[in-house]
């Protein structure tokens, strides 16, 4: 699609809009990518239709929608991971009010696809059924093991399930970890607000985990059959009822953020912090990311006034996959109604915003959320060439880059 079809820009500093695709008016959520030879492919999960799509972004100014595969009609297919030629799509029982009937969900867990033989056309391999509610934000960076955030039968909230995918036609769970209080079937209580939102960012033998109101956790996963707790930083209900949404490691620091669930000024101010983890047994918060401020031209004093959800959501998560940018000196965030925010992280004790981009609010509703129709940037990924790909609940795919 031509750049002329892109939404108007409301706010921008240090960011250029390079390309746009409306995705056939089926907004996307999570983004994965891989480079194969000289070609760059994005793999998108969708919000309001059970589907994953493949976009060729070799020419970032002209993203091309190549193919799609449909998931089960009443399952959330919100998440996707791609590495080593394997695509893992999550299947989850929906939350009421999001355009799906959770009572009609027939399949949960993950679907596995081959994207090695033909990267542009995923080929179905198998369905791995986790039972329960299914999986949310999973982690796979290649190799033998995938790390699933799954609400299994007998539990409340998501737990960590480590599965062996070396034979994707026969996925086998090899280990689990859950917080005290989550295993209802074993008589545990008190864990109703706890759960692995995910993904568990696995670096070496350690997994850095966002565990809702239980906090930010570091697990030792050297023994896949018996993960153990190394340390925990509790945030309680600070920020939002969800608690910790994402924890992603940048060098000796983990950037931890919450996620607002309510719209407008209905919740406390969401947070993003840097946690020093050079000693995994003694993590400590060392700095806070500054809260985005609307440009004066908007007439807003804060994004809480704008309507819709505000605050940090997803980070660019490089995880050793060919084609993605690996750079711990910058942190890229989607911020719901505040669009894309980019932070200089060369001094982790003093993160500072260096660029932002916010499109004009949509005028056409493509899904039931947000209740007030505003920009709602959801996920992003940055490729090794520096192109930033962002999704929105009621728009298509934005292709952006830092201005020279």
Note down, in words, how this protein is organized.
Helix content is 0%, strand content 41%. It is mainly β and 404 residues long. The chain has one domain: YVTN repeat-like/Quinoprotein amine dehydrogenase (Methylamine Dehydrogenase, Chain H, 7 Propeller). The chain is globular and about 55 Å long.
Order of helices and strands: EEEEEEEEEEEEEEEEEEEEEEEEEEEE
| CATH topology grouping | Methylamine Dehydrogenase, Chain H
Q: Count up the domains.
A: 1
Low-confidence stretches: none
Question: What is the CATH top level name?
Answer: Mainly Beta
Q: In which range does the helix fraction lie?
A: under 10%
Report the sheet with the most strands, covering strand number, pairing sense and barrel closure. 4 strands, antiparallel
CATH architecture descriptor: 7 Propeller
Estimate the global geometry from the Cα principal axes: globular
Instruction: Give the CA-CA distance, first to last residue.
Output: 24 Å
**For the record, what is the CATH homologous superfamily label?**
YVTN repeat-like/Quinoprotein amine dehydrogenase
As a whole number of angstroms, the C-alpha radius of gyration is 20 Å
Q: What is the arithmetic mean of pLDDT?
A: 96
Give the neighbour order of strands across the main sheet: 1-25-24-23
The class by helix and strand makeup works out as mainly beta
β-strand amount: 35-45%
Q: What is the number of beta strands? A: 28
How many helices does DSSP assign? 0
